[in-house]
Design brief:
Elements: E1 2-11, E2 15-18, H1 19-23, H2 30-37, E3 41-44, H3 48-63, E4 72-76, H4 87-95, E5 100-104, H5 110-123, E6 128-136, H6 146-149, E7 154-164, E8 170-177, E9 185-186, E10 194-195, H7 197-219, E11 228-231, H8 236-246, H9 257-260, H10 267-277, E12 286-293, E13 297-304
Parallel strand pairs: 4-5, 4-6, 11-12
Antiparallel strand pairs: 1-7, 2-3, 6-7, 8-13, 9-10, 12-13
Helix pairs in contact: 3-4, 7-8
Length: 309
C-alpha cells in the first residue's frame, strides 16, 4: 500500500512579537533582522500539545475524519511539554485516538522524517497516520541573545496520511545526520538554544542542496519538474541560496517565515498548508519538501500531490 495526504491544518499562538518589539530590548533593528533573516514577526505562546491538538483537529476535520479513524500519531518536536510521557500521548488523548503515539525529534528536519516514517507504517498495514510538527521554541530561547531571539518562535502544522492502492504519493526521499556537528546548534536540558550561526548557515545550504538532489534523483525527476519547493523556514538567505543552486526559482518556493519565524519541525507544514490555502498546489503537482537542523540533520522528500484543494 502507498499513502496520500488527505487532510491538513495549522495552529499559531495569538501573541505576535514584531521586530519593533525586539528593538526595544536588543541591540538590533527591523532593517537588520529583515535583511539577514527575512523575518518581520513571529508567534509566541501556548504549549506544544495544545498547538498540536489544534492543528491536528483541523487536519482531521479537513479529511472528514475523527480521532477513532487514526492508527498512529507521530509528533515531530524538539520541545516536548514533559520529559515523560511523550507529548504525543497528550495529543492522542485529546483527539480521541486509540492507536499508537510517539514523539520524534530530528529537530528542524523532523516533519520530513515523520513523513517518511508515516509512509513506512502505512506500507506495513496502518490505515491512517496523523503527522504533526509542533514547537514552543520560545521556552528554550534566551530573549536577551540577539543571535537566537530574532529567529525562533512557536507553531504547529499537521497532515493526515491515508492508505491507498498502488505506489501512493512518495516518489523519492533522503534522510541523514552528522553527529559530529551536534555542538553547532543545541540546547541542554534546562538550558537555552546555543548556535554557531555562521557555520550553521554554511552547512545548511550544502545539506539542503545535497539532500534535495538525492531525493530528486531517486524520484527520477529534474528540478524543472518541481511545481513547488517547501523548504524549512529558517532564513530567507539560506532558502534563496539553496534554491539558486538547485535551479528552482523563488516564485516556485513556499515561504512563510516573514510572519512565523523559525518554528523548527512545524515550519515545513506551516509553509505547505499556506501554499495549499493560496491555491498554489493542484492534483498531480510534484512537490519537494526539504529541511535541515540540529544534529546536524537533514531530510527531503518528493511527493506527487494527489488531494483536491
Amino acid at each position: 500500500m502507498g499513502a496520500v495526504i488527505v487532510g491538513w491544518g495549522t495552529a499559531l499562538p495569538d501573541r505576535i512579537v514584531t521586530n519593533a518589539d525586539l528593538e526595544a530590548v536588543l541591540d538590533t533593528s527591523d532593517e537588520w533582522i529583515t535583511e539577514r533573516t527575512g523575518i518581520k514577526e513571529r508567534r509566541v505562546g501556548g504549549t506544544t500539545a495544545g498547538l498540536a491538538v489544534a492543528a491536528g483537529a483541523r487536519a482531521l476535520e479537513r479529511a472528514g475524519l475523527h480521532g477513532s479513524d487514526i492508527d498512529q500519531v507521530l509528533l515531530a518536536t524538539t520541545t516536548p511539554d514533559r520529559m515523560i510521557p511523550s507529548t504525543a500521548s497528550d495529543v492522542q488523548h485529546a483527539l480521541g485516538i486509540e492507536g499508537g503515539a510517539l514523539d520524534l525529534n530530528a529537530a528542524c528536519s523532523g516533519f520530513v522524517y515523520g513523513l517518511v516514517h508515516a509512509h513506512g507504517l502505512i506500507a506495513l498495514g496502518a490505515r491512517r497516520v496523523l503527522l504533526i510538527g509542533s514547537e514552543t521554541l520560545s521556552r528554550v530561547t534566551d530573549w536577551h541573545d540577539r543571535n537566537t531571539a530574532i529567529l525562533f518562535a512557536d507553531g504547529a502544522g499537521a497532515v493526515v496520511l491515508e492508505a491507498t492502492a498502488g505506489t501512493g504519493q512518495l516518489l523519492g526521499w533522503d534522510l541523514g545526520s552528522d553527529g559530529s556537528a551536534r555542538d553547532l546548534l543545541y540546547a541542554d536540558i534546562g538550558g537555552y538554544l546555543q548556535m554557531d550561526g555562521r557555520e550553521v548557515f554554511r552547512r545548511a545550504v550544502r545539506a539542503t542542496v545535497d539532500s534535495a538532489r538525492r531525493s530528486l534523483e531517486r524520484a527520477g525527476i529534474r528540478p524543472s519538474d518541481v511545481a513547488l519547493a517547501v523548504p524549512h523556514q529558517a532564513n530567507i538567505r539560506i532558502i534563496d541560496a539553496a534554491c539558486q543552486r538547485l535551479g528552482i526559482p523563488m516564485e516556485r518556493t513556499a515561504t512563510v517565515l516573514h510572519a512565523t519565524g523559525n518554528t523548527s519541525s512545524a515550519s515545513i507544514p506551516l509553509a505547505l498548508v499556506d501554499a495549499i490555502e493560496r491555491g498554489r498546489l493542484h492534483r498531480g503537482d510534484l512537490v519537494l519538501l526539504v529541511g535541515f537542523g540540529a544534529g546536524m540533520s537533514w531530510a527531503s522528500a518528493v511527493i506527487r500531490w494527489e488531494a483536491d484543494t
